[in-house]
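Write out the bound-state structure for iron/sulfur cluster.
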Amino acid sequence: MNPCIDCKIYMFKHAKELMAETGASFLVTGEVLGERPMSQRMDALNLIEKRAGVKGLLLRPLTAKNLEPTKPELEGIVDRKKLLDIRGRSRKPQMALAKEFGITEYPSPAGGCLLTDPGFAKRVKDAIKHGEFNAENLALLSVGRHFRISEGARLVVGRDEGENSVLESLIKPGDIIFELTDHEGPSSILRGGASENFIRIAAGIAAYHTKFRLDESLRVDYWKSGEQRTTIAVKPAEQFSVEEARI
Ligand code: SF4
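---
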């Protein structure tokens, strides 16, 4: 899984459709050869163009002289002599260019979006594998610690107060919410599993993520949105079973 390559293929496929709609004859991006190790290597640039069906139609003015001439250059629509040959990870040439053009407001170079986070990618993969990859779950995948309780059920445990509030805002009908009965602690959501066994396993994992994890027994409240709370006493899960379930 290489999110930036997949993402760009998707973007350029979509851009190609827009070309047909708007009558544009080529595309332009700010990509630079070698700027990003995974998605802007020569082979990755070529692969992206090929898979998106935009071979020869994608002009990368900042780095064009490092690449084969594109259709607009060959047809004389764009003068290749005026294009640049920037390559590599340094952003200094781009910044110097921005200065020359009087452009002062631009985002600082960053490591990539959430899709490039290995933890998030792992959770996306798991969701795809279990047929849970949809818009509702996507928001949930970016919050908290995730645990696979069964084929169709995942538990999400908030890591701090901020995440607890986000989790609460993502509750949908059918989700089961967990909170410690007698102490402050994380909010957790079980999505996709409501059997008594899954509830006990989930409550044990939720109880593990508190400072009372060594207690023999903890009381945990659980409820579905709009319904009455039920209280159960569980032994906090053991570390190995928590790690085993961790997505
Ligand atoms: S950083 Fe995110 S938005 Fe940018 S190309 Fe990669 S996956 Fe796509």
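---
The mean pLDDT is 94.
Residues 3-4, 7-8, 112-113, 115-116 surround iron/sulfur cluster (CB under 6 Å).
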